[in-house]
Automatic annotation (TrEMBL):
Keywords: Membrane, Transmembrane, Transmembrane helix. It comes from Ferroplasma acidarmanus Fer1. The keyword Cell membrane does not apply. GO terms for cellular component: membrane. This is DUF106 domain-containing protein.
Length: 228
């Protein structure tokens, strides 16, 4: 009876999460369409030059620095809002519950315990709801930062296509074409940009977690000391 009362409150939450996922997927397809269509991509990148060229372009003279700085800027823009919208304690708890659930399910299948399997399957819906709610809160700031990400990526794509001199010196090659060279299937310039983005995002998030959690632990210690 209690499960039936909880479902109406849970279903809208799952529906909202699925809608957010659909928006991100639709936006990703839109970005692919814009990049693949020169009649839209090139004029848009040209207009964005007025904004990003003075800040990050360096008049095409330092393309490696442009790529790394672009990745750093996007890493900062994406990691800082995401940190404050993420419940890290709840995320850790959810991950622990998920690991324990998967372990219990494996043991139930190995032992052939049908009753335990059915019980765990009933708990699966609530676990999925908790994960969806946590993911939805984490994705909220990305709804805003995604717009900036799309604009700067379109500008960077056009920047690399219109760069005046495409050859740069790297440790493994002193005469490397940065536009046509690839790492496996990914263009080299995109790999450098992604590396800067992920590295800075991870570093900034780790620092913020360390500072924030240290402050909270000290506050708990002070509160405990006052209560004695």
């Amino acid at each position: 009876m209690q499960q039936g009362n909880n479902r109406p409150a849970q279903n809208p939450q799952m529906t909202k999460f699925m809608m957010i996922e659909f928006v991100f997927m639709f936006a990703g397809l839109g970005l692919i369409f814009i990049i693949s269509d020169p009649s839209i991509r090139n004029p848009l990148g040209h207009y964005l030059n007025y904004v990003f060229m003075p800040l990050l372009g360096f008049n095409y003279e330092l393309p490696i620095l442009t790529l790394m700085l672009t990745g750093i800027v996007l890493g900062l823009i994406s990691s800082i809002p995401r940190y404050f919208f993420t419940d890290w304690l709840k995320m850790g708890k959810t991950q622990m519950i998920s690991k324990a659930y998967q372990k219990a399910m494996r043991e139930a299948y190995r032992s052939g315990d049908r009753a335990r399997q059915q019980k765990l399957q009933k708990l699966s819906m609530q676990r999925q709801m908790d994960q969806a709610a946590l993911s939805m809160n984490t994705m909220k700031p990305l709804m805003v930062t995604e717009i900036f990400f799309f604009l700067i990526f379109i500008w960077l794509y056009v920047f690399m296509l219109t760069i005046h001199y495409q050859y740069v010196s790297m440790p493994w090659d002193l005469n490397l074409n940065i536009v046509t060279s690839k790492i496996y299937i990914m263009p080299l310039w995109m790999a450098l940009y992604t590396l800067g983005n992920l590295a800075v995002g991870y570093f900034v998030t780790s620092i913020m977690k360390f500072v924030d959690f240290t402050y909270k632990l000290r506050k708990l210690d002070d509160d405990s000391a006052r209560s004695l």
